[in-house]
Design goal:
By secondary structure, this protein is of the alpha/beta class. Helices cover 26% and strands 28% of the residues. Strands 5-4-1-6-9-10-12-13 form an 8-stranded mixed sheet, sandwiched between helices. The protein is globular. The structure holds cytidine-5'-monophosphate (C5P). Cytidine-5'-monophosphate (C5P) binds next to α3 and β9.
């Protein structure tokens, strides 16, 4: 095994968006570059962990040292996460689609001049809450993310309780052309005990390295 603060540990990370098909050429997605999740996976591998990165469709290179599993939809992501267990740490950085079209059409929906049919949606599974709530094989450290545009801290406090994770990383994504897709991030760390820590704006790579140090200290 590689030396480092996470030597001998298993870590899974979700990253990127999900694509929820409407028909063969269209999908619903969230805005996510995958940069923060990929940076965490790279940092965990550099810290000696055995890393599985479960990634939705992204346009960035695979992080060095991690096993990468590519998925499309939220349901595929949940399946891949469950297949990667057990792990010591699970980090849910993906921007998972909350809803998917109730029915993915097998043929392209034609534009025929009449009013388009409304798109019926159904809820996707909450991957983070599902894994945090497991009785068997629950990772010792379950980490969630919260991308918020307003009331960042209040929403984070509500979210950590509702999702059942041990640590929540909240970021303000309200700035135009800021965090989403960018190279930098400013985050707040919220613990289950209510402890709050705000970090300065940092490169996503540096956020990844500091988070990994924190995970090692919490195990
Ligand atoms: O509820 P919200 O989407 O803001 O929660 C964000 C956190 O939950 C992130 O850690 C995200 O990866 C995770 N999540 C998930 N499955 C979903 C929705 C969100 O794992 N269906």
């Amino acid at each position: 095994t590689k030396p480092g603060p996470l030597a001998g540990r298993r870590v899974l990370v979700t990253s990127g968006p999900t694509h929820e098909p409407i028909d063969p050429v269209r999908y619903l997605a969230n805005r996510s570059s995958g940069r923060q999740g990929h940076a965490i996976a790279a940092a965990a591998a550099a810290a000696g962990a055995t890393v599985t990165l479960i990634s939705g469709p992204v346009a960035i290179p695979d992080p060095p040292g991690a096993k990468v599993v590519r998925v499309g939809t939220a349901r595929e992501m949940l399946e891949a996460v469950e297949a990667a267990l057990p792990t010591d740490v699970a980090v849910f950085c993906a921007a998972v689609g909350d809803w998917r079209p109730a029915e993915a059409r097998g043929a392209k929906i034609k534009k025929d001049g009449t009013a388009p049919a409304p798109l019926a949606l159904v809820e996707n599974p909450d991957i983070l809450a599902t894994i945090a709530g497991r009785s068997a094989d629950r990772p010792r450290l379950v980490v969630g993310f919260a991308a918020e545009t307003d009331r960042v801290i209040e929403n984070a406090r509500e979210k950590i309780a509702r999702k059942g994770c041990d640590l929540l990383v909240a970021n303000d994504v309200s700035h135009e052309g800021g965090v989403m897709g960018g190279a930098r991030n400013s985050v707040h760390l919220l613990g289950r005990d209510g402890a709050l820590e705000s970090w300065p704006e940092l490169d996503k790579d540096e956020v990844g390295r500091r988070l990994v140090e924190r995970f090692a200290a919490m195990l």
